[in-house]
Amino acid sequence: MTNKTWKGDASSLVDAFRKKEISPYEEMQHSIDAIENSKINSVSFKDYDLALKEAKDADITKPFGGVPALIKELEPVKGWPYTEGSLLFKDRIADHTMHAVGRLIDKGGAVPLGLSTSSEFGGLNVSITKLNGITQNPWKYGRTVGGSSGGAAASVSGALVSLATGSDGGGSIRIPAGYCGLLGMKGTFGRVTRGPHAYMKPNTVVGGILSRSVRDVARYYDVVAGVDPWDPSTLESDGKWEANLGKSTFKGKKVAVIPNLCGVTLEDGVAELIHQQAELLIKDLGLVKVDINVKPPNLAAYWMMENLVTLIGELGNLWPRRAKDMTDEVAMGLLLAQAFYNLKSASLAEMRRIEANEEMARAFEEVDYIIAATNPGPAFPAESTKSNQKRDLLDILKENTVIKNASKSVLYGARVISSFNQKLPIAILDQAANWFPEMMEMGALTMISNVYGNPAISIPVGSIDSLPVGMQVLAPHHRDSELLDIALEVERNRPWPLHAPVD
C-alpha cells in the first residue's frame, strides 16, 4: 500500500490545510493507514476514533492546527495509558496531561492520535523494552533508532506523522534525531515546562520535538515555551521564535571543532565527515575556527545514579519485587544505585558536576560554539543496547542467570559494607567506565549539555553506509535562537532528506 502521508514538514502541512489542498481529517486517515501498515513498531498506543473526531473539527488557524501528532509515552495524556515503557505500569492510566503536551494541543491545535515508543523510563539510549519490543530504523530495518525518543524519531523519519514530541535528559532527542536523519534540538534547561510533577533532581530534562525542519522547532517553541508556575525552572519566552529566524549575526564569532567531545571513540569516517561539514558551515557563516581543549569528566555513572533516585521513589514497593519484569540494564542500574549511592557518593557526584560546569564555562569564555558528532557512528543493530558490539561485563551478567543472581547478592552486600565504608562506592564508580565501557560512554557526546544545561542541536549532515549522521552544535546558555539559525544555514545550503525512503 502506498504511503500517502504528508512528506513535508508540519508547518507546510498547516499551509496545505489553509489552502484546502487537503483536510485534517484526510491527513489523519493517511497517518492511521501508514501506522497500520508500518513494520517499524514505533507506536505503542492508538486512539484513532478520538483522533478522527478531533481532526474533523480541527482549528486550522492555530500554529499546528489539525496536524496529526504522536506523544512520547513518557509524557502523560489524561485518559491514555501511562506506562513509561515498562511492564510494571502496563495497566496504569494517566490522570493528568503534561502541560507541554496540553499547550501543543490547546494552543497549538495539534491532534494526537497515539503514543510513540521509548526506552523504559527513558533510561537507555535505545528503544528496546519488554513491554513494546524493538523499534526499527526506517532508513534500514534491523538498525537502531536510538532513544529514548526513538519511536518519535522513527515515526517522523518513517513518514507516519510530521510531528512527534520528545524529551532530552541525556541526549534523548539528539541521539535518535542523529540516527534517523532529523533535526533534534535540546534547548537551554527550563526552555520547555516539565510540569506538573517536575522533579528537581537531577535537572537535566528539556522537552521538544523530532522535526524535519528548523521552522517546526521554532513554531513549537512559540506554542510551548514559557513560564509555568508548576515548574519553577521554566524560562521567559517572547513567543517570536519563528518570526526571528535568520536574524542572528555570526561573522567573526569563534567556534571549536571537536568531533570526539568528551573523549568519545568515534567510528571510521565520522570525524572526517564532521570536520568536512564544519568547515563548510564556518565558511558559510564567517566564523573563526579556534583550537581549544575541552575535557569535562565522564559523568555517566553519576548521571545514572542521580536519575535513579527519583525512579526508586516512583516504583515504591514494586522494587525490587518486580525486578525481573524490567529491562536488564535498568534493573542492574537500580541495583548499582542502591548499593553505591550514599552521602559520600552523592557529594562526589555534585563535585564532579561542578567540575564539568566549570570546564564548559571556561570553554565558552573562549568560543561561541562547539561542533561535535551527535553519535559515535551510524545506527548499530536494533537489538543491541550499545553501539560497540564487543562483549563486556554487563553482557556476561545478562546472559548468565547464575552470575546475574550472584552479582545481585554482591551488590546487596556492597550496600551493607558501604554504609560503614563510604569511600568504597566512590572507588567502584570510578572503575565503572572500565567495567561497562559502552554503558558509560553511550551518550557522552550529548550528556554534557544536559549536565551543564546549555542548548545543543543535532543537524543532519550526510551519511555513512547509507545511514544518517548528525553534527551537533553547542552554544552557551540562552542562545538557542543562534543554534536554530545555524541549522537554518545548513538547511538552506545543504538541505537534508525530510524522511527515509518510503513507498
Q: Describe the strand arrangement of the main beta sheet, using strand numbers.
A: 1-3-2-6-8-7-12-13-11-9-10
Provide a count of the helices: 17
Q: Which runs of at least 5 residues are low in confidence (pLDDT < 50)?
A: none
Major sheet? 11 strands, mixed
**What is the CATH superfamily of the largest domain?**
Amidase signature (AS) domain
**CATH class categorisation of the largest domain:** Alpha Beta
Description:
The protein is 40% helix and 13% strand. The chain is an alpha/beta fold and 503 residues long. It has two domains: 10-248 and 474-493, Alpha-Beta Complex (Amidase signature (AS) enzymes); 300-353 and 393-435, no CATH class. The strands form two sheets. An eleven-stranded mixed sheet has the order 1-3-2-6-8-7-12-13-11-9-10, with helices on both faces. A two-stranded antiparallel ribbon has the order 4-5.
Structure summary:
By secondary structure, this protein is an alpha/beta fold. The chain has helices at 10-18, 24-36, 48-56, 99-106, 150-157, 174-180, 214-224, 270-285, 300-315, 328-340, 343-366, 393-399, 401-420, 423-435, 437-441, 444-452, 480-493; strands spanning 43-46, 68-72, 111-116, 128-129, 133-134, 163-168, 183-186, 206-211, 254-257, 288-289, 369-373, 456-464, 467-474.
